[in-house]
Amino acid sequence: MNGQTRAGSKPYPYELMLENPSALDRLDVQFRWGDYGIRMLRFHHTSFPPGRTVQFHKHSDFEFHFIPRGKGKVILGSEPYSLHEGLMYLTGPGLLHYQEADASEAMDELCLHLDIRRLEGRPEAGGEDWGESWERQEAHACVRQLEQLPPRPVPDNFKAMECFLTAYRAWHENQPGVMTVIKQAIVQILLRVARAYDAPPQPLLPSRDMKHYRYGLAVQFIQDNYMAPLTLEVVAERVQVSPRQLQRIFRERTGGTFSEYIESVRLSRICSELAESDLTMDQLAVRCGFSSSNYLHYVFKRKLGTTPMQYRLQHREQRHPQSQSW
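Above: the chain's sequence. Below: its structure in token form.
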């Protein structure tokens, strides 16, 4: 029975899956998410003809049910609920339930059945924590919430159903990375189902020390562009902070001003060039961001207590000492 017959002129979004409703069930999809091992047991589309019933049963695993079309009812534990397009619910682990399509209207269902197990770290690392801490925290928060969901249907407000079609299309079109797409679709379903119920308090997300972060960005930009006519305003704009804030950050981090830091970077480069090249003072001034060789001479003498030429001679002698004569 096709989508047009069932829904009149309204197209059925999951028509493609009707070609091979259980295709994904044949794939052995297993992956790790945080501290959990996840194995896909079933990931398919099924259709209940009018009046069909599935008697009371339960699962030791997680089974997610979505209703993309039609209507019926479900009994979760001892509580009956009406089902219609756009609802979803979770059965298991261990929840006794009964399903039934409407007596006069068929009901379609998208089903994801997962074995989700807590793992004990990474075996080759002797049981140590595995993966990024934020991923472990997010996976744990999601699975913990799924374990505590109330046994009742809710609207699929965050479009978890769409992930079924994403996964099926990846298989159908033999897309590159099809197994990765399926894994991501499964994780998205878990997250979106958890989000559809009352959300728990947001876990503490990893955050940056913004002063340290902006200082690092500014320093890197200066290191990359010291030869240009940099100003406090130019660098502040690049790191998206006010000039006053940037000046304060440099004082806190270096004990000096922004200009003094740039001078130190340029002088460090000048010293390397003096020791290793034969460039003239005019060439060095242009190459290292000084407005003129005279200003370079002034800053160099003030900061290092010697002239550029004296520095060059001294370091050339240290690198190439004259042979002693006897």
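The beta strands are 30-33, 36-48, 53-57, 62-76, 79-84, 87-91, 97-101, 107-118, 154-155.
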